[in-house]
Design a protein that fits this description.
Blueprint lengths: L1 H11 L7 E9 L9 E6 L4 E6 L5 E7 L2 E8 L5 E9 L4 E3 L2 E3 L7 E4 L5 E2 L12 H6 L32 H28 L6 H18 L3 H4 L4 H21 L3 H7 L14 H10 L2 H14 L3 H9 L1 H23 L10 H24 L19 H47 L13
Parallel strand pairs: 1-7, 1-8, 6-9
Antiparallel strand pairs: 1-4, 2-3, 2-5, 5-6, 7-10
Helix pairs in contact: 1-12, 3-4, 3-7, 4-6, 6-11, 6-13, 9-11, 9-12, 10-11, 12-13
Length: 452
């Protein structure tokens, strides 16, 4: 999937045009159209020529021309040959060179030097070419060449909120806060009921873990951090990593199912055990399988960072909410095989969990390396927003990639190492226990039976 992302990102960027075009019309002195005239376009440095015949409207088009110095010549039997003086053709420019042929011999030439050819007369777009010397000499913050675009006339940063959902509605913020507050209240009520009935059933650290997870969810989607992610890819990455690698496992560590059920009012609790069909039980087991859980977590990280989906989330508030929610749900799926209790019948072998976590780092490492080393802006929407940390958009992208690499290393690799150490130390503990049992002296009670 990571390879698919790299290919997608490479081809989804806007096309880079590195050629120009020369167009024009050939007429006679009276203004009548001359068809079937031969127009020769010559690049003066290499003497490469391209011959084009004018159509029935007297028009010609020379495309895919490399930047350079060109001359254009038009000739037709019965008319003098007209030659346009050398002119410069830059990247993505359309130069119009029209000819007015005079009656005479083809061997005679008329060199046009009075007027410059018209540039960009065929389109309404405005462009400017910044040559190599200016790129090297001009001071750039972080050497981000994209900043040179603002030297062209008519180019501006635009308002910070244009084309984005950076301004989160107050009603949505209040709704998120109320939903999380209600969840915390129900969990606390259920936890207190369980503690009063069974003091040792659920420990206090689970309450702290669950509440901390809810606070982190609010920080990611309901706090001011939720609006800053449209101004910085680094903050955007921080939000998603908080939801998936910190908030989700903390909520699962709180063992939320039983306390939430106990905390609900009695009207929401059924008095009989629900019966599920065989297909439903099979589907539930499939959802909890480590392979599907791994694919859910990895798919959310890679899928939402495809440029098309990422840009859609930046433009649409609804898609952006779906994006945040999918990261949290994918985090639940991903951490479920690891956070299950040891007594669970569906818990996979512990050695496989170390491999599970290690394999999860590979797609994230590829994505973070691509963001750091691709040397181009993958998400153009950050060009039209004001930067939070006074960094160029390309610098911000590199910082986001580095943050992802370091964060994922701590979140996945460290637990994998801890699990590996625990697996390797278990045989030593078991063998030590067996040796202690053998060394324990026998005790003979009064009835003559020997016990150990």
């Amino acid at each position: 999937m990571a390879i698919v992302f790299l290919l997608w990102a490479s081809f989804s960027a806007e096309a880079q045009v590195d050629s120009g075009k020369i167009v024009g019309t050939v007429k006679d002195a009276s203004g009548a159209i001359i068809s079937a005239a031969t127009v020769t376009v010559t690049e003066t440095q290499t003497n490469a020529e391209e011959k084009i015949a004018t159509n029935s409207a007297g028009e010609y088009v020379a495309t895919e021309l490399r930047p350079g110095i060109y001359t254009v010549k038009a000739e037709r039997a019965g008319f003098k040959t007209a030659v346009e003086a050398p002119f410069k053709l830059d990247i993505n420019q359309v130069v119009r060179v029209d000819f007015s042929l005079v009656v005479g011999s083809v061997q005679e030439q008329v060199v046009v030097t009075a007027a410059e050819p018209l540039v960009e007369s065929e389109t309404s777009s405005i462009g400017q070419v910044i040559d190599e010397s200016r790129v090297h000499q001009l001071p750039l913050n972080g050497r981000d060449f994209i900043q040179l675009a603002y030297l062209s006339p008519g180019v501006n940063m635009g308002p910070a909120s244009t084309g984005s959902t950076g301004n989160v509605p107050l009603s949505l913020v209040l709704g998120i806060a109320c939903a999380l507050g209600a969840t915390a209240f129900v969990y606390l009520r259920g936890w207190l009921c369980l503690r009063s009935a069974f003091p040792k059933l659920i420990s206090i650290w689970r309450l702290v873990a669950f509440m901390s997870g809810l606070v982190l969810v609010w920080t990611a989607v309901g706090s001011p951090l939720a609006t800053l992610d449209h101004h910085s890819l680094t903050i955007h990455m921080m939000k998603h990593l908080l939801l998936m690698t910190v908030a989700a496992p903390l909520i699962l560590a709180g063992a939320p199912a039983f306390p939430l059920v106990c905390g609900l009012p009695r009207v929401f609790i059924k008095s009989h055990r629900p019966r599920t069909s065989v297909p439903a039980r099979w589907f539930k087991r499939c959802l909890r399988h480590p392979v599907w859980c791994w694919l859910a977590g990895t798919g959310a990280v890679i899928g939402w960072h495809l440029p098309v989906l990422f840009q859609s989330g930046m433009r649409s508030l609804g898609i952006h909410i779906l994006q945040d929610l999918s990261f949290l749900v994918a985090g639940f799926f991903f951490w479920w095989p690891i956070m299950q209790s040891p007594a669970s019948a569906t818990k996979p072998p512990q050695w496989s969990m170390a491999l599970y976590l290690f394999l999860a780092t590979l797609p994230c490492d590829i994505l973070s390396a691509f963001l750091v080393f691709c040397n181009r802006l993958v998400y153009p929407s950050y060009l039209s927003t004001s930067q939070v940390f006074s960094m160029a958009p390309l610098q911000d992208q590199e910082c986001a990639g580095a943050l992802m690499w370091v964060w994922v290393t701590f979140a996945y690799v460290i637990p994998a190492v801890a699990i590996t150490v625990q697996i390797l130390s278990r045989p030593n503990i078991e063998s030590q226990g067996m040796r202690d049992a053998r060394r324990r002296p026998a005790v003979r009670p009064l009835n003559g039976a020997e016990v150990r």
